[in-house]
Amino acid sequence: MTSDSWSTSQLVEFLAVLSEQPDEDAALRAGVERVLESLDAEVGVLFGPSGAPTVVGLPAGDPQADALVAAARAGADPVHIAGLGPCRTAVVALDLGEDALRLMVARAGAEGFVPDEMLLLRGMAWVLHLALRPLRVMVTLGERQRVLEQVALVQRAIANRAPLPEVFDTVTEGALGLFGSELAMLYLADQGVLMVASVSTVFEEDRPPARPIHLRSGIGRAAYTLGELVRTDDYPGSAYANPELVARGARAAMGAPVRENGAVVGSLVTVSFRPGHHFTDVQEQTLLAFADQVSIALSDAKTLATAQHAIRDAVTGLPNRVLFLDRLEQALDRGVRAYVLFLDLDRFKLVNDTLGHSAGDELLRQVGRRLRECLRAEDLLARFGGDEYAVLVENGDAAEVDRLAKELLAAVQRPYFVAGAEVTIDGSVGISVSHDGAVADEVLRDADTAMYRAKHAGGGRYVRFEKSMHTVLVQRASLETDLRHAVARDELFVEFQPILELQTGRVHTAEALVRWRHPIRGVIAPDEFIPLAEETGLIVPIGRRVLAAACEQAVTWAAPDGGRPPGVSVNLSARQLLDPDLVRDVRRIIDRTGMDPTQLILEITESAFVSEAATVVERLQQIRDLGVRLAIDDFGVGYSALSYLRHLPVEILKIDRSFVEGVVAGWQGKAFLHTIVRLTETLQMTAVGEGVETMEQLTALRLLGCQLGQGFLFARPMCSTEFRRTLAGRAAVLH
Predict the structure, then answer these.
(1) pLDDT of residue 309
(2) Residue 635: its pLDDT value, please?
């Protein structure tokens, strides 16, 4: 069924059938029967102006009638009808005050009514409405046809989603021909003031009637105020006369109220300037029918606006995920080769947290505009929420899509000016392409998977989806499930790696490192499961257990010379620092284990300050207030802004292994390391060299004045028992 199926001739035929009926009840029943036939439906329920329902398609006296009437009132879909089974329904309601009409049709099966069928149903409902008005006083079918031709023009404009001004002009232009008048005007209320929405006239351009900005008098004001049709054949002598129109020679006029959802919101006016002109009763009803067309256009526009809101992103105005998936599904149904580019912004959260959500929203809008400029007119751009966008390209080729991905990234990477500041962000793009039998969710999922691969590779790039990625995704999902079980089953354990005083060789501290002994795969490397724990949030309970285990072991350590025992160092992830219960958990563990808080060091990475820096700093200060010491891990490869060091209550900088490795590679590497060590001295901090593996590195660190070191040269991570033996001198650590 297409939207052209309900042509003017068909509607004329439909109205003729209705008009031939002997009474209103017969017309209603004949109308519903014709609607059911047109839509291949079995049962219909119509509520006409009288309010009494007309049920068609059930045997007389069928006990299901009452239940079906109730379902029609409620707009239920689907409904169950004995003998037919589950039925899909479609409902159209014309809220026209006393002339309100509601029609429901039911069709057996699971397939619902498509949009074109809904348009047909609505058009036929309007013809039913016209038949219910006193249009039967039109003696000839020709009169009916002229009215219906104009109604059909308006209906077609509404169905084609023409702009409201265009629909309104169609109404006023049609009124001129039907009423034999020289002027037709449509007024709509704006906060109680009637404003001109459309004017059509036969006057020459050098003698147009005045187009008032608003209307305080006249027949249009009367129809709006009274909420009923107003007519006068002596306009100059009527109480409704507008002086300006009287001065221009107006002789007769009619005004009909325009309603939206039952409330009067305006008026439709037609004016004749010909002496002796009289409007007829039939023309009264025609004007009311045309006013109804404005009502349906307003209601349809509001419905469309509501629907658009449901499928549009509120921030950018772009299509949202719902509309994107619908378009993608349509493309797949047509057998089109469809590409999806899934883009995720990098560092957007930093802008949002630093400059505020209003600035973040403005940045999202600017990104949307830039992306749109990269696309063809037929391509679809959508925002999925957060900092994710998606592009649908139909009938493209791989090379074109690759070029597009590069253009999208280049557009994203250009500087932005937001909230008075220049900011830069980056993006990661994943690309997928449809295949035979693909469904929309699957194609989108593949693009999302490829995007994450691009992000994990460092961002600022695009990656095409490959089937092997899906295998990795399945393995990752399986690993996540196993990791959740591991937390519950206590499969995680802690090892300790000594941190030494470089000048004396004495064990100063031990870093607690989490390990996972999988029941089938054996010991799984931290690099494999720690990022997964971060993404899923499992790092919070894991981190809590590691901290507790480290403190429980540390209180059992003793220095061989009876002096101060070594402390223990535990890593805190960025995700843990955002946990509101972190400080409470640290305090409870210290109290429960009897750990000396000054012997506990919590290590944080520089990346922890990229997101919600103020919250992180406040939380670190609360931890420091407990007596716990703080260290920056992997210093030099992350945020590396000296300004933030002034505000952090940290005492220790752990220099990233890349600087330690470079200390023997040449003068530049040694200069970098020397600068960092001098920085720690200036800030009265302790420097720890990470990843010490050779005697050359050890010698260089000693000469530069680095106090502490950690690495395989001294010891690999070990269990607590072995670490205690090391402390007792049974295993040499530093020679």
Answers:
(1) 61
(2) 83
DSSP secondary structure code for residue 539 in this structure? H
Establish whether the linkage from the previous residue to 717 is cis, with ω within 30° of 0. Answer: no
CA 387 → CA 28, 40, 316, 382, 426, distances in Å?
A: 54, 46, 11, 11, 11
Would you say 240 and 222 are in contact if contact means Cβ atoms under 8 Å apart? yes
Question: CATH homologous superfamily for 487-727?
Answer: EAL domain (3.20.20.450)
Task: Tokens for 45, please give them.
Answer: 């329920």
Kindly give, in sequence order, each residue whose CB lies less than 8 Å from that of residue 457, ignoring residues fewer than 6 positions away: 463
Q: Could you tell me the fold of the domain covering 3-132? A: Beta-Lactamase (3.30.450)
pLDDT in the model for residue 6: 42
Answer whether CATH 1.20.5.320 is correct for domain 141-308: no
Other CB atoms within 10 A of residue 82 CB = 10
Residue 106 tokens read as 């039911």
Residue with tokens 């499930």: 481
| Residue 189 bridge partners (DSSP) | 194
pTM (2 decimals)? 0.49
In the structure, how many helices (H) and strands (E) does the chain have? 25, 27
- What are the residue ranges of helices labelled H in 96-137? 115-132
- The residues of the chain that CATH labels 3.30.70.270 are 321-465
C-alpha R_g of the chain = 39
Nearest one of 64, 63, 65 to 55, comparing CA atoms: 65
Q: Which of the four CATH numbers 1.20.1600.10, 3.30.9.10, 3.30.70.270, 3.30.360.10 does domain 321-465 have?
A: 3.30.70.270
d(CA 678, CA 685): 10
- Tokens standing for residue 155: 């209906």
What average pLDDT values come out for the chain (735 residues) when binned by 10 residues? 43 64 77 88 82 81 84 85 89 68 88 76 74 49 64 69 78 84 86 78 55 61 91 90 86 90 85 89 80 72 59 85 87 91 89 82 94 90 92 92 96 92 92 90 92 87 87 76 86 93 91 91 86 86 94 88 86 88 95 95 78 77 94 73 71 89 75 87 91 92 92 92 80 45
357, containing H or E segment:
helix 357-373
